[in-house]
Structures are given as structure tokens and as C-alpha cells.
Amino acid sequence: MKVFTVENIRLADQYTIKNEPVSSVQLMERAALNCAEWIYSNCKNHTKFAVFCGNGNNGGDGFAIARMLYLKGFDIDVFINKDHLKFSDDALVNYKKLKDISGISLKDFHEIERYNFDEKTIIIDALFGTGLSRNPEGIFKKVIEILNSKVNPKISIDIPSGMFADQINNENATIFKADYTLTFQFWKRAFLHPETGSFTGKVVVLDINLSQEFIENTSSNDFVIDDEVIKNIFKIRQDFAHKGTYGKSIIVGGSYGKIGAIMLATKSALKAGSGLTFVLAPNCGYEILQTNAPEAMFMNGGEKNINQIEEQENTVYGIGPGLGTEKETEKALVKFLENHQSPLILDADALNIISKDNNYMKLIPKKSIITPHPKEFERLFGKTENSFDRLDLAKTKAKDLGIYIVLKDHHTQVITPSGNVFYNITGNSGLAKGGSGDILTGIITSLLAQKYSEEEAAVLGVWLHGKAADFAAEKYSKEAMQPTDVINELGNVFLDLNKKATTQL
Ligand SMILES: NC(=O)C1=CN([C@@H]2O[C@H](COP(=O)(O)OP(=O)(O)OC[C@H]3O[C@@H](n4cnc5c(N)ncnc54)[C@H](O)[C@@H]3O)[C@@H](O)[C@H]2O)[C@@H](O)CC1
Ligand SMILES: Nc1ncnc2c1ncn2[C@@H]1O[C@H](COP(=O)(O)OP(=O)(O)O)[C@@H](O)[C@H]1O
Ligand SMILES: [K+]
Fold first, then answer.
1. Please, are residues 101 and 73 in contact by the beta-carbon 8 Å criterion?
2. Paired residues of 250 in beta bridges
3. How many angstroms from the chain centroid is the CA of residue 212?
4. Residue 1 located in a structural domain
5. Is residue 279 part of a domain?
6. What sequence ranges are listed for the domain YjeF N-terminal (predicted)?
7. Residue 294 sits in the same domain as residue 396
């Protein structure tokens, strides 16, 4: 799914109105109906809604939603700024419709302090949408702050009020903190970054039927990895395949005390379907690896640390998990990179070694995939102020070096050399444990060996990793799930993918 800027959303709106055709107030009705239906089906334990409406079209959505929920039998109180009753055209239409309903009480923002937020009440935030032009101040700021102090469930319409859709807010900005955000048609960029995304709660994208023609014909560099993207990448395994069809992976890493990391990466490469899988590790890991991952063939890289990396042809290398940064290992990696031409995956200590010397960066083969977490990224490319700036820097580096950067985060970003960004929306904080990244390296290496392109391997890899983690969290909880559980859930993710990709009778 494309991530549109506020400007493009506005244009999509206008294009739909003109070409569907549909009036803008009908489009607002459609958007509100989608929200009301979602709320109606998901909030059955609550009887009362306090709806907070601003003066723009987001407020207009709020008025229409309030009316619809009232007609479904809920108790509704609507709060507005009675000192300033100037609305956008469509908001005014819905304000007037609401005023005609005697059963809905229209309250002033100032009444909030005396209002009874009992446990049956859900708060709906329709103060500001994508038209926010400055940080909320005065009564708006106060209302948001009071609402944020309440324990009642909170739903934002389109975007949490006070948040800019495309850019980072300044640090002290007042933003409504939602449990759910019902957003129209597209993910907004700010939902996908940690500084702002923490205000949205669960994001639900509602399809309000904006013109598909416009969406298809309007370019964007930012995408969310949704089911559609994955459906277009995933290839079912061919019946007449043999092990050679699905490529050769060599997972390189491990050092004394860190054989677990390379084990996790190796098992993941096997589980993700690589035809032949090798593990190049120091000898101290031989027995552990051969016992626990007998399907993988062992290549000796040294005694306690790797001091040589054998070059083999037609092989995809995934280097880094548990590798260590010893001088002998550094030498071995540099020597290997000096002679190696084809794209590979670099992670963890391989990246830490590369960040030691500016000249090493140039040794990364073009079209390779690197998978830094934020700290590794900083070691490689320097400090940035926030995750938006970090992404900008990553775009520059991906282009300059001609590589793919998988910037690991809650919503991991795959950045291509051409400047596209794919945000991942699978995965959960159960992955915030040592070992989770090693799995990702194994998966991406395996996919690249199986002849997925670099972009496909990175995009499908982060999605698979997150999806398996979501399955593991459902079974074991985010707290208790282990990286090993994530590896074991890969099978269920592939079963789902195959079911969707196979013709069903
Ligand atoms: N995207 C779509 O296709 C649709 C969008 N709709 C709604 O329209 C919204 C956008 O509407 P608008 O462009 O009217 O924008 P808003 O509803 O966000 O309101 C902007 C208004 O608030 C004022 N304002 C901005 N920042 C302020 C601040 N800090 N303090 C006080 N006033 C401030 C602006 O001057 C403007 O009058 C969307 O978020 C969505 O809720 C739907 O109604 C219909 C379909
Ligand atoms: N809160 C989170 N939500 C979603 N994914 C997460 C979260 N925390 C960590 N992850 C994922 O887990 C992995 C952690 O990688 P990394 O920090 O390299 O771990 P390690 O080096 O210990 O293996 C990344 O893929 C990251 O995106
Ligand atoms: K809002």
C-alpha cells in the first residue's frame, strides 16, 4: 500500500469527488459510516460516547459519527468550542443535522471538567485531522491534556489530534493518545515512526473508496508492506524442484560463547526454505551446530573465532550473527569482501567491523543487504536527531553505496538504492529480545539464495519474521515467546501463504 502525503491525500479526495462523482459531503458521510460501523461492531460493551469535534472536516466526521451512533441507540454527548462556531462547509452541514436531533446534548469544551467520564463511556477524538497546521494551544491543548488523563477507551478519527501526518512533532507537542486510530484509506507516515507512532494505538485502515485510478497513477516513494505486496512477491515451491533449484546459503558467524546466534540464523535459513544450507563457524561450535542443526553442513572458519572465510561460487552469504570483532576476524572479513562481488547480507558484528574504518564501507558489494539496528546504524553512518532524520540519512547512504538497508525498528524500514521505503507492519515487542535479529539474517539470506531479488528478499524477509513473531505471541505471549518459537512459527506462516497462493477447489 502506498503511503500518501497530506497533499496527495487531499488530491485523491478532490479527484474522487470530481470523477466518481460524489459530493464532498457524501464522501464525508461514507467515511463516517465506515467509522460508525467499525465502532458499532467493536464496542458492544459500551453504551455511551463522548465525541470531541473541531471546526474542520475531522470535526465534520465526528458530527456524522455521533449522529450515526445515536441512531444505533447509543447515548451521545458532543463537545465543541462554543466560543468559535465557524465550521468548514461540510462540517457545518453535519453540525446542523446534529443540532436537529434533540436527544444529543451539545456541550462546550469548558464543560469537560464537570463531565462524568464513567466506565461505560468511550472518548472519540475528532478535533483535528490531516489539516493540522500548528501545535494545539489554548482550549484545544487543555481538552487534549484532560482527555489523555482519563482511563476511558479512546478512539481517534483519521489521526490522533495534534499529530502531523507527514513529519515529526516537536518534543513538547500535545497529542491525543489513542487506543485505536481509525484512519482513512492510507497509513500516514507519522504512524510508522516511534516518536509519533506511539500515540496511535492500534491502527485500523478503513477503505473509503477513494479513486483507485488516482492512487495507481500517483507515485509515492513510501509503501507499507501489506498482504497485497506480499502476494505479489511470494512464489509457491515448484513441484519439479530439486535442492539446486532453491539455492545455496552460507551463514557465517559465531565465536566462543556466541554459537547460539549463528545457530538461530542457520535454523532460520533452513526453515525459510534454502535448498542447501552451510554454516561457517569456528570449530568450538562444531558439535553444537551438527547436533542441533544436522541439516546444515559445517565449514570450519577457525578455532574460537573466525579467521578465514572460504569463498564459494553461486552462493549467498549471510555474515555477522555472533561473529565477534576480534582482529583476526576483522582481517578475514575484509579479505573476503575484497574478493567477493555478488550481493550478500551483512548484520551485527559484520557491520560493527565495517564501522571501524571508513574504507571498509566501499567493500560492500553493490546490491547487498545490510540489517542494522539503530545503534549499529549510528556506528556506521553517524548520529541523527530522530527516526525521520535517520531514515533520510539511510536513503542517502543506500543510494551512494548502491545497497539495500534494512533499518530495524518496531516498523522496520527497507530502503532501496532508488530511494523507495517499505515499512513493515508485522511483528511485535516480543521480538525485543537478544537473538531476534539473527533470525532475520537467516531468513533474508535464505530468500536471496532462493532467487528472490534483493528487494523481494528484504521485503518478504522482514514481513515473514514479523508475522511468525505475531503467531508466536498469540501462542505464548509477547513476554514468554522466544526467538526459537519465532523460527518454529515460520512453517505456519508459509502454510497461510501457500493457501492464499494456491488455486482452491
Ligand atoms: N481523506 C479523505 O479522503 C477524507 C477526509 N475527511 C476528513 O477531513 C480531515 C481533514 O480535514 P481538514 O482539512 O478540514 O482539516 P482538520 O479537520 O484537521 O481541520 C483543520 C482546521 O483546523 C484549523 N487548525 C489547524 N491546526 C489548528 C490548531 N493547532 N489549532 C486550532 N485550529 C487549527 C485549520 O485552520 C482548519 O480550519 C481528515 O483528517 C478527515 O478526518 C473526511 O471527512 C472525508 C474523506
Ligand atoms: N518492539 C518491537 N516491535 C517489533 N519488532 C521488534 C521490536 N523490537 C525488536 N524488534 C525486531 O527484532 C529484531 C531485533 O534485532 P537485533 O536488535 O539485531 O537483535 P539481536 O542482535 O539480539 O539478534 C529486529 O528485526 C527488530 O525489528
Ligand atoms: K482526530
1. no
2. 278, 317
3. 23
4. no
5. yes
6. 9-216
7. yes
347 Cα nearest atom in ligand 2:
18
Quote the pLDDT of residue 243: 85
Q: What is the CA radius of gyration of the chain?
A: 26
List the grid coordinates of 134. 500548528
Neighbours of 24 (CB within 10 A): 17
36 lies in the same domain as 152: yes
Query: Which of 196, 220, 244 represents a domain boundary (last residue)?
Result: 220
Q: Is residue 247 a contact partner of residue 451, using CB atoms and an 8 Å limit?
A: yes
Average pLDDT, the chain: 97
> In this predicted complex, what is the ipTM?
0.95
Same domain? For 49 and 185 the reply is yes
Establish if 226 belongs to a structural domain. no
If asked whether residues 34 and 182 sit together in one domain, one would say yes
Q: Which domain holds residue 110?
A: 6-220
Q: Tell me whether residue 129 is annotated as binding.
A: yes
Residue 215 and residue 242 in one domain: no
Neighbours of 504 (CB within 10 A): 5
User: Do both 365 and 266 map to the same domain?
Assistant: yes
Amino acid at 317: Y
Q: What is the DSSP letter of 124?
A: E
| Same domain membership, residue 214 and residue 241 | no
Q: Is the dihedral of CA 393, 396, 401, 406 positive or negative?
A: positive
Domain-located, residue 225: no
pLDDT reading at 504 higher than 80: no
Domain end call among 220, 241, 271 = 220
Residue 245 C-alpha cell reads as: 533449484
Ligand nearest to the CA of 194: 2
Ligand 1 geometric centre to CA of 148 (Å): 20
If you measure from the C-alpha of residue 144 to the centroid of ligand 1, how many angstroms do you get, rounded to a whole number?
Answer: 16
Q: What does the block give as the cell for 273? A: 526454505
> Is 322 annotated among the ligand-binding residues?
yes
Rounded Cα distance between 79 and 87, Å, is 14
Ion ligand 3 — residues with CB < 5 Å: 58, 125, 156-157, 161
Ligand 1 geometric centre to CA of 128 (Å): 5
Ligand nearest to the CA of 462: 2
How far away, in angstroms, is 374 Cα from ligand 2 center?
10
Number of domains making up the chain: 2
Atom of ligand 2 nearest to the CA of 433: 22
pLDDT per residue as tens digits for the range 92-111: 999 999 999 999 989 999 99
